[in-house]
């Protein structure tokens, strides 16, 4: 369920339809999943969320997009810590 914030409306507009055997499903983009996990970790610290963020970043991500929205969502420091810990380019 989408929340009524500027970011969540934007996230919803970026979702992608994926065809799987027998059905279609909408999924969130990689960067938006990263942002959601950072927001979750901000509100209730979770090593699992941070490990997931590191794994997602290892697969590549739009850093400009992430930097913009981490500022808006007040999770910039969590992203920096994750990038530093994972040594991502």
General description of the model:
This protein is mainly α and 89 residues long. It has one domain. It contains five helices and two strands; from the N terminus they run αββαααα. The chain has helices at residues 6-13, 30-43, 47-58, 63-73, 76-86, and strands spanning 16-20, 23-27. It has a two-stranded antiparallel sheet with strand order 1-2. A hairpin with a 2-residue loop joins strand 1 (16-20) and strand 2. The chain is globular and about 40 Å long. The N and C termini lie far apart (33 Å).
Tell me the helix content.
Answer: 55-70%
User: How many strands?
Assistant: 2
Number of helices: 5
List the domain count as a whole number.
1
What Rg do the Cα atoms give?
A: 14 Å
Which stretches are low in confidence, meaning pLDDT under 50 for 5 or more residues running? none
Question: What structural class do you assign from the helix and strand content?
Answer: mainly alpha
Mean of residue pLDDT? 88
Task: Explain briefly what this protein structure is.
This protein is mostly helical. The protein has one domain (6-86). It has helices spanning 6-13, 30-43, 47-58, 63-73, 76-86; strands spanning 16-20, 23-27.
Structural features:
2 strands; mainly alpha; 89 residues; 5 helices; globular
